[in-house]
Amino acid sequence: MKKIISLVMMTMLTLTVSAQAFPPTEAPQLEFALQLRVTLGEVYSAGMTQHGRRTIIPITGGTFEGPNIKGTIINGGADYQLANSEGRTELEAIYCIKTDDGVYIHVRNRGIIYNTSGPEGKPSFYFKAAPQFEAPTDSKYAWLNNALFICEPAWGGSQGGITLNVWKVK
Fold this sequence. Notes:
Oligomer: single chain
Helix content: 10-25%
Shape: globular
Number of helices: 1
Order of helices and strands: HEEEEEEEEEE
Structural class: mainly beta
Largest sheet: 10 strands, antiparallel
């Protein structure tokens, strides 16, 4: 038993020293990857569930373009949203895109929307998400599989849809 306690103590000491030996470096940089212009169908709701208000927004199409990628958004996906009574909504959009050269890529975009009052009672709105891409590993789009991405909406865009700007975390 004494050996186990000694081993645990040595491990904790090593982790503490290691954490102090490697201070944080600069914050990660972002690189613009693409813009999605998503068209949406009629919103419907499953109502109040045991987890919150469930809303479904069909994804009916659209286009996307970035420095190394361009194509269309495939009809048939949806954005599944779950809202609580405190102004927070979790979103999970699942859909596919097709590049101009015929490559299909699966997208799963998870995020949060939060409406609240900020300092001095001013309205505050937060909307960020983290898309994950599944591209064929033998395609020129395999780079999408090996990076983290973040996105946020771009306001004043398409009618009947949403525009999302996506950045790669470098």
